């Protein structure tokens, strides 16, 4: 009798699944969790077993296939279906998957309920120390990959068990030179309605313990989530280190050994007699939307800009003997870190004495990569009287297109609705948008169709379009920013970020009363992460942020430090 009802239940489920040729029933046992959970249920198909399917999802043409659906209150043993109602990337409908053999895996990316100071409750994936990576987030459930065969013209039923759980992330350990700091932010705790923390990895200057009288300038190296201070090693790479690894972007074998050698070379420079003694800080500000906050105040993320500038930076300076004044603080970084460096300098013009922004994320939304959000009607397509063309999303230095804007956004939509993919376009939206009535970021465009909401574009312009803000407020900001703005970008940036830099350069060159007296420079045929070094290939210069700008920082200190400033205690 039990078998009869089980068969009947399965048949009803297959009928309910509609037109789909394949239905996947996914459960988790109480051995990995006894409570009901919310989250995003993901199903991934890979054509090979070179790595687990969850690690093969990307923007490349060879990406694995992924489908996703939201789940609320999923209980141990409860079946959740992935069928034709689940949105997928790059194939949208599971019924359209080509017949063949696949390795399949399921993942449950867990959400928590947040009750912020403003707006209704929302369900979001709290960062758990991994930097907002659904593949490895501690506590996420996943299934063992299994091989299946999809047959054309037949209905098929598969069962997957989420019987594995991602382990916790180990905390980095202090060394002689690298220290770690983590504080509970009062500002962010008040906003999120629960304890919220920010932290940093701090590289101490050589001779820190031997010179207790010294006070140091501070450099904030902005960038994506760092699990520890990167690019610094007290030991050289082993002579027999494996060099068979290949990085397609640079067409190089053995790049890991090059990276390790650069890290050791930096240590040797850092401890040399002539090297300037400064604090270098990499900030940890992962949040429920992304691996960092973009270092500004946001209606959806909260006052991260104030928390970093007025809580974290002063605490770092207190603990590690920073000078603690705006003339002795500097910002640099690339990509996300490039935008953050320029944004922090613009929004806190007197708290920092210079920014060096490399390959910054779009600093004008007239060139939001390849989209003008103020004039274009659709982000995915360019329309003419007789044809419609997809907008490119990523290219190489020859201009060959890897994927489209639509591709990148549809991948995010499969990973999560309501800006919850933990990826690039969604975090821009989460930071820049007003809060919607449902408590989630108001979309700049329809994630499925690409149709742009002009009212959201106006909000973006007035609050986060850095070019617009500088042009609008130059009379007030200009005197506080002269000599502080330095921007660098490859003219073949993979994400078309140079387009916005051109617009910013046009404005900066014509500034008066005062002139900006900074620098904008471009790398010929250079791709993403070019940072102003014309002497080295990009695969080397991208590893030298922490030494590249120091000569310019020292020059800035010499020309701008106030009378009586400490210019000697840290120059031993």
Explain what you see.
The protein is an alpha+beta fold and 572 residues long. It folds into 3 domains: 25-165, no CATH class; 178-363 and 473-560, Rossmann fold (3-Layer(aba) Sandwich); 366-462, no CATH class. 25% of the residues lie in helices and 23% in strands. A hairpin with a 4-residue loop joins β15 (246-247) and β16 (252-253). α5 packs across α9.
Which helices and strands, and how do they pair?
Blueprint: H1 2-16, E1 22-27, E2 37-46, E3 65-74, E4 80-82, E5 87-89, E6 100-114, E7 122-124, E8 141-142, E9 146-150, E10 156-161, E11 164-165, E12 178-184, H2 186-192, E13 197-203, E14 218-222, E15 246-247, E16 252-253, H3 255-270, E17 279-284, E18 297-298, E19 302-303, H4 304-319, E20 329-334, H5 336-347, E21 355-358, E22 381-383, E23 388-390, E24 392-395, E25 401-404, H6 405-415, H7 424-432, H8 454-464, H9 466-481, E26 485-490, H10 498-509, E27 519-523, H11 538-541, H12 545-548, H13 550-560
Parallel strand pairs: 1-10, 14-17, 14-20, 20-21, 21-26, 26-27
Antiparallel strand pairs: 1-4, 2-3, 2-6, 3-5, 6-7, 6-8, 6-9, 8-11, 12-13, 13-17, 15-16, 18-19, 22-23, 24-25
Keywords: Signal
Protein name: Esterase
Signal peptide: 1-21
């Amino acid at each position: 009798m039990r078998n009869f009802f089980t068969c009947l239940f399965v048949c009803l489920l297959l009928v309910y699944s509609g037109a789909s040729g394949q239905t996947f029933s996914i459960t988790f046992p109480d051995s990995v969790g006894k409570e009901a959970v919310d989250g995003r249920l993901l199903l991934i198909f890979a054509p090979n077993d070179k790595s687990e399917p969850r690690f093969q999802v990307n923007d490349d043409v060879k990406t694995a296939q992924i489908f996703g659906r939201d789940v609320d209150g999923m209980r141990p043993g409860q079946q959740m279906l992935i069928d034709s109602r689940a949105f997928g990337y790059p194939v949208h409908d599971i019924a359209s998957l080509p017949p063949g053999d696949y390795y399949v895996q399921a993942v449950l990316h867990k959400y928590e309920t947040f009750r912020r100071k403003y707006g209704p409750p929302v369900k979001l994936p709290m960062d758990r120390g991994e930097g907002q990576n659904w593949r490895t987030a501690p506590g996420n459930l996943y299934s063992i990959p299994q091989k299946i065969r999809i047959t054309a013209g037949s209905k098929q039923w598969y069962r997957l068990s989420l019987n594995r759980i991602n382990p916790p992330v180990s905390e980095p350990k202090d060394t002689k030179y690298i220290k770690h700091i983590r504080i509970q932010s009062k500002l962010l705790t008040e906003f999120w309605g629960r304890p919220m923390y920010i932290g940093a990895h701090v590289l101490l200057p050589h001779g820190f313990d031997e010179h207790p009288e010294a006070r140091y300038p501070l450099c904030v190296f902005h960038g994506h989530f760092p699990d520890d201070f990167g690019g610094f090693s007290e030991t050289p790479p082993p002579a027999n280190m494996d060099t068979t690894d290949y990085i397609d972007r640079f067409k190089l074998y053995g790049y890991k050994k090059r990276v390790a050698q650069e890290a050791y070379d930096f240590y040797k420079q850092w401890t040399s007699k002539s090297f300037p003694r400064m604090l270098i800080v990499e900030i940890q500000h992962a949040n429920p939307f992304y691996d960092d906050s973009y270092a500004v105040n946001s209606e959806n993320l909260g006052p991260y800009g104030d928390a970093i500038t007025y809580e974290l930076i002063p605490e770092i300076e207190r603990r590690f003997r920073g000078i603690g004044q705006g003339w002795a603080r500097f910002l640099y970084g690339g990509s996300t870190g490039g935008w953050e460096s320029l944004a922090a300098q613009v929004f806190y013009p007197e708290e920092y004495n210079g920014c060096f922004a490399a390959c910054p994320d779009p600093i004008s939304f007239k060139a939001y990569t390849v989209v003008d959000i103020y004039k274009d009607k659709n982000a995915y397509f360019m329309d003419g009287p007789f044809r419609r063309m997809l907008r490119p999303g990523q290219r190489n230095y020859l201009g060959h297109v890897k994927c489209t804007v639509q591709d990148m956004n549809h991948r995010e939509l499969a990973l999560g609705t309501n800006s919850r993919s933990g990826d690039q376009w969604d975090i821009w939206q989460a930071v820049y948008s007003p809060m919607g009535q449902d408590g989630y970021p108001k979309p700049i465009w329809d994630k499925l169709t690409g149709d742009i909401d002009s009212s959201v574009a106006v909000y973006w312009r007035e609050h986060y379009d850095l070019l617009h803000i500088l042009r609008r407020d130059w009379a007030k900001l200009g005197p506080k920013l002269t000599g502080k703005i330095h921007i660098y970008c490859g003219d073949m940036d993979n994400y078309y970020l140079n387009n916005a830099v051109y617009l910013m350069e046009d404005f900066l060159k014509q500034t008066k009363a005062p002139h900006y007296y900074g620098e904008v420079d471009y790398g010929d045929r250079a791709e993403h992460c070019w940072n102003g070094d014309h002497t080295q290939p990009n695969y080397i210069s991208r590893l030298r942020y922490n030494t590249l700008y120091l000569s310019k920082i020292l020059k800035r200190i010499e020309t701008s430090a106030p009378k009586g400033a400490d210019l000697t205690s840290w120059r031993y």
